[in-house]
Design goal:
Mean pLDDT: 95
CATH topology of the largest domain: UDP N-Acetylglucosamine Acyltransferase, domain 1
CATH architecture of the largest domain: 3 Solenoid
Number of strands: 40
Helix content: 10-25%
Shape: flat
Radius of gyration: 27 Å
Strand content: 25-35%
Distance between the termini: 88 Å
Largest sheet: 12 strands, mixed
Structural class: alpha/beta
Length: 344
């Protein structure tokens, strides 16, 4: 597909600074820009690339003012990052969509299947399932009995959905996601062994949730593990039994949330964060990467470090910590000076 820079600006309600007739037929990163491609600049640390990029046009924020001459055509928009997202979405929608039912697969006769769907080869849909309209189920997806999957949801290859899960509209589950596997529950016995505690709850996932590849969400011991509307989970995230993740919370890769903890709305967790069980984290909480949290956390906090310190305090502590070798040497020097003084 090919568009002019003016057509792109019109779609994004932006302004062309340069050649409005320029032909654009691809997209590229700003540092790897090629003639005929459109790139974008939203992070200030990449600003220097705009003066050397070979991209024919670059999306920039409306308040961007170049410090020297720019050879590429600029398309000024309110938010360059959101604008490129809108264009990529438009591109994805232009790709022919898969439809129909491939064989072989198994669909239980009691399952109710919506309209305009895609079911890939080697998929399994269990008894009493309800699959909505426009759902896409890619090859080798397994959906257990009594599950509900609402309209416009996409399950990529190899997703496993255990029985009784409830999944909302407009969700995206990437390859290898497991929904509803048993929670990690074992009762210690007198002889030192562990007896399995059977998990009889389910998982409820609300609308507009996206879950990255190989992420796992355990079913509840009793009741439901709940992922609220708009949550975005990265690859390799682990959510344990009876956890509740509040709406529009974002959690990066390799993070883990232990059982029965509650996460508030609009939280942002960096990669490798670890949340202990049976605690409550408030709304609008930010955790830096590899932060550990072992206690209840009120709203609007930013925490850092393996013991979840307030960010400002953590920075002060770390400033001392990284100077420990010099401080240790200073203390040893002062001890020697004190001994010499006492000897005299």
């Amino acid at each position: 597909m090919e568009f002019t820079s003016l057509e792109i600006a019109s779609f994004l309600k932006g302004e062309v600074i340069g050649d409005p007739t320029l032909k654009i037929n691809s997209v590229s990163k700003i540092e790897e820009g090629k003639p005929g491609s459109l790139s974008f600049l939203s992070n200030p640390k990449y600003t220097h690339f705009i003066y050397e990029t070979k991209a024919s046009a670059v999306l920039v924020n409306a308040d961007f003012i170049p410090e020297r001459e720019v050879e590429t055509t600029l398309i000024k928009v309110k938010d360059a990052y959101s604008a490129i997202s809108a264009l990529l979405e438009l591109y994805i929608q232009s790709i022919p969509q898969k439809r129909g039912v491939e064989n072989p697969n198994f669909i239980d006769p009691s399952a109710k299947i919506g309209e305009n769907i895609y079911i890939g080869a080697f998929s399994y849909i269990g008894a009493n399932c309800k699959i909505g309209n426009n759902v896409k189920i890619y090859p080798q997806v397994w959906i257990g009995d009594d599950c509900t999957i609402d309209d416009n949801t996409i399950l990529f290859a190899g997703v496993k959905v255990y029985p009784q899960a409830q999944i909302g509209k407009n969700c995206i589950f990437h390859a290898g996601v497991v929904i509803g596997s048993d929670g990690f529950g074992f009762a210690p016995q007198e002889d030192g062994t562990y007896k399995k505690i059977y998990q009889i709850g389910n998982v409820v996932i609300e609308d507009d949730v996206e879950i990255g590849a190989n992420t796992t969400i355990d079913c509840a011991t009793m009741g439901s593990t709940i992922i609220r509307k708009g949550v975005k989970l990265d690859n390799l995230v682990m959510v344990a039994h009876n956890v509740v993740v509040g709406k529009n919370t974002v959690i990066a890769a390799l993070s883990g949330i232990a059982g029965s903890s509650t996460i508030g709305d609009h939280c942002v967790f960096g990669g490798g964060t670890a949340i202990t069980g049976h605690i409550k984290i408030g709304n609008n909480v930010t955790l830096a990467g590899r932060t550990g949290v072992a206690n209840n956390t009120p709203d609007n906090k930013t925490l850092m470090g393996e013991w979840g310190m307030d960010a400002a305090k953590y920075r002060r502590v770390y400033a001392v910590f990284r100077n420990l070798p010099e401080l240790f040497a200073d203390v040893n020097h002062l001890k020697k000076e004190l001994k010499n003084h006492e000897a005299q």
